[in-house]
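Fold this: Major facilitator superfamily (MFS) profile domain-containing protein
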Amino acid sequence: MPQAKVQHPQHSASASTIVTNSDRPSSPGVSSLRSHASRTTGSDDISTPIEQFEINEEGTEADADADVSGVRRSNGHGLPPVDGGWGAWTYLAAATALEMLIWGFANSYGVFLDHYDTIYPKSSMLPIIGTVAMGIMYTLLCPATLWLTSHPRQRIPAMWVGVVFLGAGLLGAAFAESAGGLVVTQGVLYGIGGTLLWCPPTNYMFEWFHSKRGLAAGIMLSGTGAGGLFMPLISIGLLERFGKRTTLLAIGIGYIILLTLIIPFVRPRLPLSQQTTTRIPKVNWDFLKHAPFWMLWLGVLFQGLAAFMPSTYLPSYATALSLSPTIGTIAIALMNTARVPGQVFLGYLADKLGARKLIISMALASGISVFAGWGAAKDSGGLIGFSIAFGIFAGSYTALLSSFTKVLNHDDPHLPAILYALFYLARGIGSIISGPISAALMNHTTLGNAKGGYGVQGFGVLILWTGAGMIMSGIGAGYKTFKMD
């Protein structure tokens, strides 16, 4: 069958070929690709090399997939199959394991905070350590996504650099002699290393999965909850028996070994020669001028300002109730575990119901769980019950972020990943700010005579702040006013 080759007239040597079946009408996917090609090869920017893609219009939906730029490609030329096969599932297993290790330790900081309080009493910097680590991972995802999208050859090297930073953070924390030293090591260095390890597997998911991308994302996110189950239990066992230095040394060395074994399985599906290797792709930033984006972004920010409080303070809260420290650790473990089914189910509902209804539902449910659950918890049963409820509702909130991109995306192939990173940026800012805010709130004892959890030492004001932040996260549903969906 005759084929038509489209090349840039001024750059035939470097321009790549778009192949179509000229005997049949163009499909929407081909029209989108032609439009994309015309934008990248316009006369106003003739110095930009054309990206290489190939269209096989005789392929079926099952044969097609999407590369990191969102352009449809075929499974030809010996590429591994999409949505299945040894390559896809080993990649997903490795990515889930990375998620489990990186975020499992970060979400276990409450265990370390309770232990650090005995080593560095009355230090206002201690609550900042965990929020700095998570905040950096959230905020750096945005620039890391932009950089690695335009420099895909740097993705694997970035992961190895991440191992160095993360290992240095854990081993350095073992020898830190002050709370400030822990902020730099267990906070900043760990956060940078976690970002470099976390970003590339997220990018590769768009190559390996298309029709099963929701399932793949749910499995990957479940690693956070799984890691949040066993890491607090491992950490408290080591801390109680061996102390801070040995615990962090053991975890640091163990992480370096495990990461070294996992990274080789985090592989791209598309050959590097067929990916963008020049500069940051052009993106239509007009969405920044519209209120719907900022409503959604502020909702994520409010959620981030409050969502990390329980995981940070539950062990200390259990101690304040004269409960065993193990109860606080179990509470964190169960909170993280509850996120696993919560994230998968919430992602499924987002496809069926749309984001707006779920934003409102999760905001109200999360707020009620705090005001009625944590605010009333005076024993181990109440504390564990709150932890499970909060994990299901507030802990699963990140599963909605991919739906937020659908509200604002207008067929720009690069925009979904960038929007996703910008929403994580809001969550990261909230995480970082929540550290000093929580330290300040814990200095207030104005509710000391209140009933239930509100009257436990300085936790009353903290509980009120957390519940209010959960309710305010519902502001994102205000985009309905602008009729964007």
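The CA atoms of residues 376 and 452 lie 4 Å apart. The longest strand covers residues 3-6.
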